[in-house]
Amino acid sequence: MSELVVDLRGETGESRRRRQRVRAAGFVIVVAALCVLLSDNAAAPADAVVSIDPDFIDFDARPLGDTATREIRIRNSGTTPVRVSRIANATETQSDFTIASSSCTTIEPGRDCLVTVEFRPSREGPQETSFEVLDGEEHSVGTIGVRGTGTRVAAILELTPPEFGDVLLGASSETRSILVTHRGGAPVRIVSVAPNDAVGFAVAADHCSTTLLQNSASCTVDLVFKPLSRGTVTGSWTITDEHAAHEVRVTARGLARHLAVTPDVLNFSPIEVGAAAEQALTITNDGDVQIVVEDIGADAPFIVAKSCAGPLEPRGQCQATIVFRPRTAGDVSGRVVIRGTGGAEEAALTASGAAFERRIGVLRADPKSPIQMTNYNEERPITITNVGNAPVTISRVRLPDTLRSWLGVIDDQCSERTLPPTGKCVITLKVVTDIYRIPNERLILDTIGTAAATFEIDVLAPERGQM
Question: Hey, which bits of 154-207 come out as E strands?
Fold first, then answer.
């Protein structure tokens, strides 16, 4: 016999069991939901709200070796602090993106911090990755996505020439450098440094050849300048990398230290030995720097009677006086030298002149006085020579004014004649009587241009036994 059990609430046993199963299932659902809720609350406090701006960065195309940076702001909009332990690459792929800097440690409620992401492409092509912002429990509180493309761009080299300024002839400048700077594009290696036209310039040290330059890196080529001429000089070099040649031009100026003298030759007119003549010199600084005239020297018989000393600015002038005082006869020449700063010879000229003894004519008879006549009617030629250094004029040839003269002039080639130095003329004498009351006679030459107004020759009468 079957038994029917009725619940006081009006439920059968089957309905009660069904109700218990539904209750158990609901409990399981509640527990599962609670677990999920607890799990979410473990990642971040329910009252912490983290935002990332921007959460994705596109660096676009960047040249290889170039560096680009972007800033990201992380904000805590909640009511409890958020501690950031690190910002890590979320992928295992090696990339050219890095976290360059971060001010994020603990973000207080209502505050923010900055993160700088850097992209420095080392290879061509697109790249993409992401970074996770991790809290103190190593749970992610946000993601930063990044992408960019590396492109190969020719290197941009900036060549900066040095400034040499002014350098004196004969001197050498201090070392100055050509600066080669990588201003963008792919890394590049300097192959060579070669001069084109560099007269006066020389490479002291080459720090560029074989050097690999990255972005913003630099190298130098050290130069010195020793001017070979006065004025501005421009030199150039070709600096060649793996793909192109670059020219750099360098300018410097050579300065001269130089004196000029006017006139450039001193010619003195002939003067008598012992006399003096003078001429003036004008000394001009026609160089580029100040010069001190330290000395003026002259070879004898030239004498510096007045010198000029002290500094001469460029285009400045001073006066000097040179005296010619000969001690011996003849032609003479010598140098006048003006020395400037440091004793170096700055200017020189030649001085020349001529000197002579006191100018006077001197007569000489051949044969010499006294002349011995020997016979009646004897004729004797006498040669007169000017042995002096000046002309002599013989106005007339005569005998003394006597009535008893036994001597006569039968041929006179000297009267009214001028004898130059070494010039000659002839006078012929004759014994014209045999009465010799006077033992000797005088032949007289009246002259102009000699030490005495007359030149006399004694003639001895023939001896009595020779009559």
Answer: 157-160, 166-168, 176-182, 188-197, 201-206
Sign of CA dihedral 281, 286, 292, 297: negative
Write down the CATH number for the domain with range 363-466. Answer: 2.60.40.10
Q: What are the residue ranges in the chain where pLDDT is below 50?
A: 1-12, 15, 22, 25-44, 46, 465-467
Which run of H or of E encompasses 288?
none
CA pair distance 117, 102, nearest whole angstrom: 9
Q: Does domain 157-255 have CATH number 2.60.40.10?
A: yes
Segment 439-466, tens digit of pLDDT: 889 999 999 988 789 999 999 988 754 4
Q: How many CB atoms lie within 10 A of CB 291?
A: 25
* Residue 291: alpha-carbon gap to chain centroid: 18
Fold for domain 259-356?
Immunoglobulin-like (2.60.40)
Provide the CB-side half-sphere exposure for 440 (13 A, CA): 11
Q: Name the residue among 378, 380, 411, 386 with its Cα closest to residue 397.
A: 411
Instruction: Please write the tens of the pLDDT for every residue from 75-91.
Output: 999 999 999 999 999 88
- What's the pLDDT at 1? 37
* Domain span(s) for CATH 2.60.40.10 in the chain: 50-151, 157-255, 259-356, 363-466
Which pLDDT score, from 0 to 100, does residue 205 have?
95
Cα dist. 337→215, 240, 348 in Å? 61, 52, 4
DSSP letter for 48, please: -
> Full-prediction pTM beyond 0.70?
no
Fold of 50-151: Immunoglobulin-like (2.60.40)
Contact 172, 150 (CB under 8 A): no
